Amino acid sequence: DVQLVESGGGSVQAGGSLRLSCAVSEYTDRTYCLGWFRQVPGKEREEVASLWTGSSRTDYASSVKGRFSVSEDRAKATVFLQMDKLNGDDTAMYYCAARFHVSYCLPIGQTPFGAYIWGRGTQVTVS
User: Fold this and answer.
1) Are 27 and 102 in contact (CB under 8 A)?
2) Which of 29, 33, 14 has its CA nearest to residue 96?
3) Three-class SS of residue 98?
4) Which is nearest to 48 in space by CA: 99, 78, 93?
5) Alpha carbon separation from 42 to 31, 39, 93 (Å, rounded)
6) Among 104, 105, 97, which Cα is nearest to 46's?
7) Mean pLDDT of all residues in 13-34
8) What SS3 state is found at 84?
9) Cα–Cα nearest to 81, from 111, 122, 112, 40
């Protein structure tokens, strides 16, 4: 089975940066849609970025546009979320999730959560 493992979370001061990684097993030579999501307890999970792997096609939520960027190391089947100019509103559990057997990523926030395979998440705390 495909597995997604996030890493890179931690605590950072406001204005700082973090880079999250999402390692995807078994899909080093295929294209798929990879989304980054975040969730604060008591609030709905929010998609913040997506990448159609093997391309430069990305999409971002308005709340992170210009501050976050998503990229990949295809040889390592790893997708990154670079987060800059972090603020307290960015504090959340961050998840990566993948959709396979599709031809493209839908616009941010339009794919049902059940359509994804999920990682377990990594906590980001901005103080």
Assistant:
1) no
2) 33
3) strand
4) 93
5) 33, 8, 12
6) 97
7) 90
8) coil
9) 122
- Cβ distance 85 to 68 under 8 Å? no
The Cβ of residue 112 has, within 10 Å, a number of other Cβ atoms equal to 8
Pair type for strands 58-60 and 18-24: unpaired
- Decide if 50 contacts 36 (C-beta within 8 A): yes
Q: What is the Cα–Cα distance from 100 to 34, expressed in whole angstroms?
A: 9
Question: How far apart, in Å, do the first and last CA atoms of the chain sit?
Answer: 37
The CA–CA distances, whole Å, from 11 to 37, 38, 95 equal 18, 15, 16
Query: Which residues lie closer than 8 Å to 73 by C-beta, 6 or more apart?
Result: 80
Parallel/antiparallel/unpaired status of strands 18-24 and 78-83:
antiparallel
- HSE on the CB side for 84, CA within 13 Å? 7
d(CA 79, CA 67): 17
- The encoded tokens of residue 63 equal 């709340």
70-103 pLDDT, tens digit each: 999 988 899 999 999 999 999 999 999 999 988 9
Once rounded to an integer, what is the mean pLDDT over residues 21-25? 94
